[in-house]
Design goal:
Blueprint: H1 3-21, H2 29-32, H3 50-73
Helix pairs in contact: 1-3
Length: about 80
């Protein structure tokens, strides 16, 4: 696997992990039955926790990337076409 392919796979896996985790643990002001300040949408999350979710996505993407890199290195998935 060359450098560009490795970076591309990691970025794609990171975004997949990050977007999958975005709704986890999110509670809107409406669900919490709290009053919203003027100009704030009641459906917006109270606390988004983006830093924690980004760090968790980084760890998940690193582990998944290692699995993909291993699968490519042992030629588990033939990416060269018919032999």
């Amino acid at each position: 696997m060359n450098l560009f392919l490795g970076i591309a796979i990691y970025v794609i896996v990171w975004w997949l992990a990050f977007f999958t985790m975005l709704p986890l643990g999110a509670q809107s002001l409406h669900e919490a039955d709290e009053a919203a300040a003027p100009g704030v949408e009641r459906g917006a999350p109270k606390a988004h926790g983006l830093k924690r979710k980004a760090l968790l996505a980084t760890a998940i993407a690193a582990i998944a990337w290692l699995g993909v890199a291993w699968a490519i290195s042992v030629d588990l998935f033939s990416m060269r076409g018919p032999h």
